[in-house]
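URGENT: need a sanity check before tomorrow's submission.

F., can you look over the Insulin-like growth factor 1 receptor record below? I want to be sure the sequence and structure line up before it goes out.
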Amino acid sequence: MRFEDVTDRRTAEILRPWLIARKQIESMDLVGEGAFATVYKGRYLRDVPPTIVALKMLKDSCRKEDIVAFVDEALVMGECHHRNVVGLIAVSIDQYLQLPIIVVPYMQNGDLQTYLRRIKKEEDKQQQ
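Structure tokens as predicted:
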């Protein structure tokens, strides 16, 4: 399944300002994995020096519904502007699999849910 096979013209137009060439990002270490996507620490090479970012990539076994939900996630992130919400930096398309890659700021403590679970676990240990 390819990005262009599931993206309608309207969605493609909305994403256009966010699109960057794949060569502008470089993946480094795997930092997380979910049911249909993986997250890598990476570099946004357009900036000098390169900005450390998180690259969220769909797995190659994804379904059409996964791609649509992934693109919708990118669109929501692109429209959300709040200092307490991670915003979208860019979207790229993998040159081989033709799947979208979401580029967001790298958060050293990971995603909010994982961070809150870790803090809760630490608090529970201290109370014992």
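My own read: The radius of gyration is 16 Å. Residues 3-127 form a domain with the Phosphorylase Kinase; domain 1 fold (CATH 3.30.200.20). If you see anything odd, call me.
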